[in-house]
Amino acid sequence: MTFPRLKVGLYASLVLAVFVLASYKLYRRNDTSIPQKDEVLIKAMLQGLSAAHYQPERIDDNFSKRVFDLYLKRVDVNKKFLLASDVTQLRRYQADIDDQVHRGTHEFLDMTTQLMDQRTKEIQALYRDILAKPFEFTTDESYQSEPDKTTFPADKAAQREEWRKYLKFQTMIRVSEMMDEQAKRKEKSNATASTANNIVATAEPDRTPVQMEAEARKRVLKYLNEQFNDMSQTDANERLASYANTIANTYDPHTEYFAPRQKDDFDEALTGRFEGIGASLQEKDGQIKVADLLPGSASYRQGELKAGDIILRVAQGPAEPVSVEGLRLDKAVALIKGKKGTEVRLTVKKLDGTIKVIPIIRDVVIREETYAQSVLINDSGKKIGYIRLPGFYADFNDNNGGRSSADDVKKELAKLKQENAQGVVLDLRFNGGGSLQDAVEMAGLFFDSGPVVQVRSGQGQASILNDRDPSVQYGGPLVILVNKYSASASEILAAAIQDYKRGVIMGSASTYGKGTVQRIFDLDDAMPAEFNNIKPFGSLKLTTQKFYRINGGSTQFKGVVPDIILPDVFSYLDEGEKESDYPLKWDEITSARYRVWNTPALPIDKLKTSSQARVAASPSFKLIGDMVQRRRKRKDDTMVSLKLATFRAEQTEAKAESDKYEQIEKGIQPLNIAPLAFDLKQWGPDSVKVNRNLRFTKSLKKDVTLREAVAVVKDQI
What is the pLDDT of residues 552-599, one digit of tens each? Predict the structure, then answer.
């Protein structure tokens, strides 16, 4: 994600004007009928995409084919429902979707929905029939687990056989898990008996293979019943939203349609704030259960709602309660969330079986774990600051109390300077991006004023976004950690630091490769009052610009290649911009004028050579490299044996590999990590904040990548 943290300006106003014009054209048609919501939504959305997208597409037969292929891929991703004859029937619409858009119809969507509904009912009866009979796991047969290597079944007999293998595979997995659980219980029971002078405690009796197989089929049946129950709750509006999003995604992977509720979820992810009660919920056995309460939240302060409570009904204040039993989790959550200061009344079943109505006044919920955090690492007498930044968050709605990632990192750097940190590691691993402006401001914390990134729309000259603050918040040794999931704003920051030679970029072979800028437009703002009765329409996030490094190259598609590449356990996965559907391609423009950091000059080659020597001598990194090679081979070998003995032998081999890494990890000397003195003073006796920090640091202590980053920082001190 990369979004400008700006108020709506002239450009946005012009785009909204395009939407307004399109909607008026829809309303002022020659016929007297008022268009339906689906017609208005699709036409207005496409009008805006044609006018404002970075690389607008012609609405023609090629457009139709892209929409057809992508929607078919998504509606039956595992090729488990539609028959080859169904696909043939749908293919007659392959070159007609553009004409349907112009007519204001969607026959392809309607026919796909009709066929999927029909096949879903048939498959529900089919899996129940297959699971009513035992499986045997001694026959030499296999199951293709990769949908891209399969085809739609030729007929119902072939479909039944495919489902038989799939259900047998799912059952076999659960049987194997039960065998492992039983073996662990036996081992624990034997150990207990040995330490208790052979006094054997009462233990759960062993289950026979037949009993395990029967239990495993029950679990698979329960899982599928829940899945199909969720599918049955998909309504016409959700199908339309999915179809609209597919159309948007054919322009590029980051152009998306958001239904109204999806836009709220997106805002929460970007800001780390939402309004509600602050309870984490889960769906289990058709019931909505409270999994956890966020410390300090409205439900936590109210005190009556507890983990384990089952929510039966939800009422908005004094209104009549609505049952949520059997309801899909996202639909139940939508009922419970609401504006700050409003009341929700939950009818819950407590652990002791009593029924209670719990009134809660909703409030702002803050997810602290989404914000920047720092600690101090003491290594051989050297103090190294560590900052984790999960995302480039910003409050686009200018809410009071909203936070900026650039401001927060600036504060963390100030605290580390107070601790006399001699170097800093900024961790952007798994950071998907966010606010473009925050990336620019954050880069400026590490060097004096100058260009940070170039931004260009589909036509015209690139504009340069500069850090205009001549002050340097931190000028010492700097390492930025990235991996293949570091994207967008993370890549802007890493690229700028690399181009200025201000710090060392370390991590996997390349970052994600998302080099585009998106803006979000509320479609309701574009619709005239005549459409009020069919609002809300949702929002459109569309790609309006590409960003380029100050050296002229785009991070789009290729990403940022680190100065020091480390073995990475995720490198065997084919993920990144270039693996997505319809990505924009890499290109380059003229370099901006900038001056590299030379106080002192960064000895990249020397640092790289020293790091490579340490990595080559490290048993942990060697094991990671070996694991990647084996996992890549297993990933490519997607045929799975349905013979239990063979399957378990493969699982045992994989577990032995994992255990080997765990043993080496146990032998690693943990990093000496401590919270900052400033933070300890702020937390005081607040155990919630202290425990949050303990959870934060636990995984860092034996992080071999972080340890190597610390070593590279020390090489510069």
Answer: 999 999 999 999 999 998 888 888 999 999 999 999 999 999 999 988
CA distance 236 to 241: 9
Helix 84-91 to helix 107-130 angle (10° resolution) is: 180
Residue 465, classed as helix, strand or coil, is: strand
Q: Which residue has the tokens 């019931």?
A: 287
Strand, helix or coil at 577? helix
Question: To which CATH superfamily is domain 275-366 assigned?
Answer: PDZ domain (2.30.42.10)
User: CB of 287 within 8 A of CB of 310?
Assistant: yes
- Pull the structure tokens for residue 228: 């199909």
**Contact criterion met (CB below 8 Å) for 423 and 382:** yes
Where does 419-468 have alpha helices with state H? Answer: 436-443
Neighbours of 190 (CB within 10 A): 12
Q: Phi and psi for 603 in degrees, rounded to 5?
A: -85, 70
Residue 279: strand pairing partners = 293
Domain boundaries along the sequence of the chain: 142-232, 275-366, 617-667
Residues 546, 606: contact at Cβ < 8 Å?
no
pLDDT digits (tens, 9 = 90+) for 456-515: 998 778 999 999 999 999 999 999 999 999 999 999 999 999 999 999 999 999 999 999
Residue 600 · residue 648 · CB < 8 Å: no
Burial class for 355, CB neighbours closer than 10 Å (0-12, 13-18, 19+): exposed
Alpha carbon of 562 to those of 7, 179, 448, 508, 511: distances in Å? Answer: 34, 44, 23, 7, 8
